[in-house]
Structure to design on (1580 residues):
């Protein structure tokens, strides 16, 4: 039946509704249910019908989502970066790799992590120096990765490593799936200035990758990584999904909630990092003239920033939905987010006054304000610094000329840390 | 609320842009800004007769086209982009809107068709020597159909045929009046302005005969709403100008070479443009959203107008400053066009109130909402 | 007014810097900030006994060295630079200064020598639950030598031997009192803070025995002057920290390579550092000028204190933000030292009042000057 | 007697005082008096005794200035860029050039202009493309200069022109003195956005420079220009000197005043360009809560900027006077000035409110506020853009690494407008 249905919104809706009516069971086991979703293709309906999907066009995906949401049906696993792994392998992996990994990506049985950033290559991801050297039918990996989320409980990693030092840097990288549960892989938590440890450092000492785990081909790693990054920018990564509040009764909801809570544990501070404009919104109607003289203006500036950024994001989505070419609005969200976080931090400071010195149980909102104040600096760095974003916006959106490059020769000769 | 323009709206935009690119290039702006009237009557005729732009948001029953405020805002944006010199903002945006908000049906029937046809030019007179735009700033007195007082900052007041004047009744309430510009007791003087593409006048009334616009409305609330609508239209005009400046800066940065490189390849310039794009896009979102709210009679309009006006004013001034800076010395010359937009930006920044006043007003309104909601 | 340090002052600075580089490297700061007391008693002894820093601005008649507030400010700047952990700011800067401004000669003779020797630690208790630092915020009551109320944000209040407490007399005026920390009716609790290198305490007084400091002064004026002096010392401390951050950012930008270049060769980084240098240098000028005014008993001190505190707070926060940003991800880690200074910057920004409150105060004082001058 | 006096402040003071007592006459003719100054060396006492000076060390110059000021004695001509010409020729000119020009530089009989900037080389002065080609014993000049002050009444120009296109750009420039009163030189005023025309464009069409007017040697023009620019940065250029208010009676004062007024005519708007903080200072004590809600904070920020910048300049001077190495404070003044001008513009706008739309006789302060608003954009451009200043500060003061250069090859091959 896959692929044979005429794809109208109505027919898709009828079909998924009928299937859910026949199959959905809130008391099902989570993994068993997701295996069922994978078999039927309703978990990732836009994936190919050969690989757990239904070849559905992207435009019809919302219909399926709506039907799931309507009856609170649970979907495939979305936390962490597992769906980035799924999409990347779908596009670049061998059939054997798809066979090995995709199903358990969807069921959530395997945890994945992304091994791109290094201490010496942050903004400049393609400058990675973790090396993979071929030794018979396996690769031997040495080096260090950083900013790795979930590495401490990951089963597999998406590894970008250098396999050729004599070609320009983008050409000498290769992409692998690495088994994280082996002696050559050591994971250490990395503590941040706000006290949380959401990330890890990963050290490779003669870690092994069998040849069949090479994704795409030798030297093509940067192209594969770009696919992963593109899906990451599209927000496929589920690290910010929130656990359901008030889940309905049923075993599957309990299991899902536990999964989400575990996955989100390190990210509890992410909303604080963004500045928690909601807390300001809640007090905005209530600020008299007895407060800090700059406060009303600064609150107004924050609300204006935050609302106009939201409307700008909606303009981008609306244009996309209408099939119009995406305007510049889409690329601007991250930069706007940095400004919002900074301005929110400023406002929270003015609002708290002397209390801004206090943290934990003594601090305003039980330490939440303090956590905001020491977390916002991450917003303009994580996921690409503001400086990199401005380069991207200027060059790709405004079409401005690129800077002269100093790293186009053989990587061996490029100046690096 | 709509977050995308309809195909019809996009088409309207294209039509207006083509017309203005043809009729209002910088050379024409420079020519007209030096004239006393400030506009070209033939272009005005085409704009009114052939394109029907002067009729756009006036209801069909009163000789208009019956489109919404959203279409008016699109035209304002395009006029801001090209720095169009003509009484559109004064007569169609401010004048016609004020009449639509305050006149009785009979009065609308009498006044609006000629305005919609572009034959009658109206100017709206609110502010006085104090430079305030709110009801508390109104001291012009009206009694027994005679108006006395001085209005300042009257956009195109020197060429309008009809003046809509906000005045105070003997009992203290605010009311709106139509005064023919050639009445006895009306003296008009063009003011020297920073932005020669938008003329302002001072109008003195000395027992001038005035007809009260007598829709059954609260004068203060009507003034407030008219100012909200004016701010929204101006915000859309401003984002059009800001966009022109951004494009001009980016284009020049790509052409100008120093130190063997296009200056646009230097991060100092590149990042300035990226930040500016962000500011302009956020301001556009605010302007569009507010225009849609105006069209939909959304009760949130007062807050949205404040957001739109202050965001657009800040973005426009930033764009003007950055565009000059990126042009370097050449950007400070008279022959370079940037200063024309810079002066419009500066003038628009304070027209109807500074950005900080609008932010303060926004905060007051948010409070009122909470208190009374 | 002096615009350059004397040779003696430069020598003092070198001595203090060498001492702190040796005794207060980031490793020590990290060790001490995790302790309950927050300081190293042996280093404190050396600082007091060998360098005499605890005595610097206390008159010789009271066991001090008799230098001026300018020398105190130099020491504060150096301590800010190294993020020195110890009760210097609380006891020498705030405590001793408060006693010098409010105690009788006999009381000074009794209290100051041990403070100058670094043997007695004093803490100054002003602010309460409201977080205000002015006289209107004082609600602690004193009657018949008994003090009741709660003080918050008491710097090093958890380790001080003596508390100087600002309280309100039955007749309503403000007065200063010495309360021994181990008196009955005194309960102290260390507060959880954002900046672990500067500890704060809450102190509850329940009919605690208090000795009024009885110099013949106006309590409110004395509080105002003490807060001015505190703000000036803090401003100098802050510019020391800001300078450290600037140097750290510049150094890292020169070492860190991305895209085949030191990141400091990119204009985005380079221009950020140039702007930061400007901000830090302007703040230094304000801090130095104000310290000199404090030393010279200049009547302009209240205005200068406002300028110094707000300029230093803004420069410090900017330096902290920029230093993290230039370090990138590494700058957000616990192991990188930047956050230690960031947290001090954030805490100092609001201690005694936010920059905007200080600017407002400055404007009020300028007005007062005009009105009464 | 020149050079033989022991140089103590006391002896210099006694000497100049005696000389002035014997020679100063408020009814003297201006040029005659200045010729006397040149002969005695008291007009530029730090110049060599061979060339109208007295070999006085710079540190003693203030003593002479004080004695002149004490009795209101008139000094040598300082308006315009003539003293830059003087210093440059003193350091790099031939004896014949010094003989020809220096005396009339001091008397003010000749007007000079500086011909460095071009439409295609603004920030990048060394990228000049005005050419000088040797033709027998004369050079033929073609090209265009811009931002030339006083060119419309100048007798001579300091010309930087390209004489070799096959070497790197800094090496192919040569420095000339050009006679401005010749058919091949056309001067056109350049109107600014504020309506004033303080600058000129200068067009060269086969203009002629005799060989003896070459300064230093062929290809050494950039070095010579750096000398001129160094003196310009030190503020030797007198374009901002103000005419005496209330000059004492005496013919010489009338003549001097006329000279100053003529020289300053195009620069009347320079104080407005800087933001006129003085106007805000005058109102600062008078701003209640009935004004724009942001105004008091913005005024405070302006006053703080302006005062701290002034103190910073004084710190730099004090360090210099003490013989300490100059700190970073010295280089920061220009960048601070841009910030002050921008903030002042903001404050004037808030203060004026709706009146900020008005100009001329209708505008606040008879149009002065309008002139400020349309003049401040020049501050962050003229004399080196903020961007160039930040480069200089970062590289020279903070020692940060330079950008890779794209213009080091033969000038012929360098990309340019």
């Amino acid at each position: 039946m896959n692929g044979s249905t005429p794809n109208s919104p109505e027919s898709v809706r009828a079909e998924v509704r009928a299937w859910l009516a026949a199959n959905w069971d809130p008391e099902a086991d989570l993994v068993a249910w997701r295996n069922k979703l994978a078999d039927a293709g309703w978990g990732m309906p836009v994936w190919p019908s050969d690989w757990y999907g239904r070849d559905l066009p992207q435009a019809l995906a919302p219909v399926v989502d709506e039907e799931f949401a309507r009856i609170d049906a649970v979907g495939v696993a979305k936390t962490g970066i597992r769906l980035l792994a799924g999409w990347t392998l779908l596009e670049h992996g061998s059939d054997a790799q798809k066979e090995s990994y995709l199903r358990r990506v969807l069921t959530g049985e395997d945890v994945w992590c992304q091994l791109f950033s290094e201490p010496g290559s942050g903004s400049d991801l393609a400058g990675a120096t973790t090396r993979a050297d071929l030794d018979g039918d396996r690769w031997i990996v040495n080096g260090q990765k950083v900013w790795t989320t979930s590495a401490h409980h990951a089963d597999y990693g998406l590894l970008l490593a250098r396999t050729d030092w004599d070609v320009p840097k983008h050409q000498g990288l290769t992409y692998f799936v690495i088994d994280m549960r082996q002696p050559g892989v050591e994971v250490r938590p990395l503590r941040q200035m706000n006290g949380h440890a959401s990330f890890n450092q990963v050290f490779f000492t003669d870690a092994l990758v069998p040849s069949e785990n090479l994704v795409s081909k030798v030297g093509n790693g940067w192209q594969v990584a770009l696919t992963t990054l593109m899906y990451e920018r599209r927000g496929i990564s589920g690290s910010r999904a929130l656990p359901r509040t008030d889940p309905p009764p049923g075993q599957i909801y309990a299991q899902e909630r536990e999964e989400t809570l575990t996955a989100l544990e390190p990210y509890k501070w992410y909303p604080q990092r963004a500045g928690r404009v909601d807390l300001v919104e809640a007090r905005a109607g209530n600020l008299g003239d007895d407060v800090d003289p700059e406060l009303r203006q600064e609150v107004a500036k924050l609300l204006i920033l935050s609302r106009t950024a939201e409307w700008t994001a909606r303009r981008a989505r609306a244009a996309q939905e209408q099939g119009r070419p995406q305007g510049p609005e889409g690329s601007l969200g991250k930069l706007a987010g940095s400004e919002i976080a900074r301005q929110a931090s400023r406002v929270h400071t003015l609002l708290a006054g002397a209390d801004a010195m206090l943290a934990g149980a003594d601090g305003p909102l039980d330490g939440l304000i303090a956590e905001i104040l020491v977390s916002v600096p991450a917003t303009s760095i994580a996921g690409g610094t503001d400086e990199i974003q401005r380069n991207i916006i200027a060059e790709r959106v405004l079409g401005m000329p690129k800077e002269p490059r100093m790293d186009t020769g053989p990587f061996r000769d490029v100046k690096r840390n | 609320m709509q977050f995308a323009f309809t195909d019809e709206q996009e088409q309207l935009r294209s039509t207006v842009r083509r017309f203005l690119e043809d009729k209002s290039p910088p050379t024409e702006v420079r020519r007209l800004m030096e004239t006393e009237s400030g506009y070209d009557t033939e272009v005005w005729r085409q704009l009114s007769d052939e394109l029907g732009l002067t009729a756009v948001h006036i209801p069909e029953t009163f000789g208009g086209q019956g489109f919404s405020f959203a279409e008016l805002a699109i035209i304002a944006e395009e006029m801001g982009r090209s720095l169009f010199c003509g009484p559109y903002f004064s007569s169609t945006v401010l004048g016609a809107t004020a009449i639509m908000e305050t006149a009785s049906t009979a009065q609308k029937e009498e006044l609006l068709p000629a305005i919609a046809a572009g034959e009658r030019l109206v100017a709206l007179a609110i502010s006085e020597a104090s430079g305030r735009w709110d009801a508390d700033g109104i001291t012009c007195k009206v009694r027994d159909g005679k108006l006395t007082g001085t209005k300042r900052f009257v956009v195109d007041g020197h060429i309008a045929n009809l003046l809509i004047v906000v005045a105070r009744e003997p009992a203290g309430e605010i009311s709106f009046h139509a005064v023919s510009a050639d009445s006895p007791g009306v003296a008009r003087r063009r003011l020297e302005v920073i932005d020669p593409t938008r003329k302002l006048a001072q109008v003195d009334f000395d027992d001038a005969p005035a007809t009260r616009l007598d829709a059954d409305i609260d004068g203060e609330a009507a003034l407030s709403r008219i100012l909200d609508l004016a701010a929204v239209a101006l915000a859309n005009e401003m984002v059009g100008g800001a966009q022109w400046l951004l494009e001009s800066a980016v284009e020049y940065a790509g052409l100008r070479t120093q130190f063997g490189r296009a200056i646009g390849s230097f991060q100092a310039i590149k990042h300035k443009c990226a930040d500016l794009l962000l500011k302009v896009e956020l301001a556009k979102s605010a302007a569009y959203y507010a225009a849609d709210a105006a069209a939909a009679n959304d009760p949130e309009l007062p807050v949205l107008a404040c957001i739109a006006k202050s965001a657009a004013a800040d973005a426009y001034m930033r764009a003007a400053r950055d565009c000059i800076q990126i042009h370097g010395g050449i950007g400070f010359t008279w022959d370079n066009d940037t200063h024309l937009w810079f002066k419009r930006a500066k003038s628009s920044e304070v027209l109807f109130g500074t950005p900080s006043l609008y932010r303060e007003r926004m905060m007051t309104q948010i409070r009122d909402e909470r208190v009374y909601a």
In short: Chain D touches chain C through 47 residues (CB under 8 Å). The first strand of chain D starts at residue 112 and ends at 115. The domain at 95-233 of chain D is CATH 2.40.110.10 (Butyryl-CoA Dehydrogenase, subunit A; domain 2). The two ends of chain D are 56 Å apart (CA to CA).
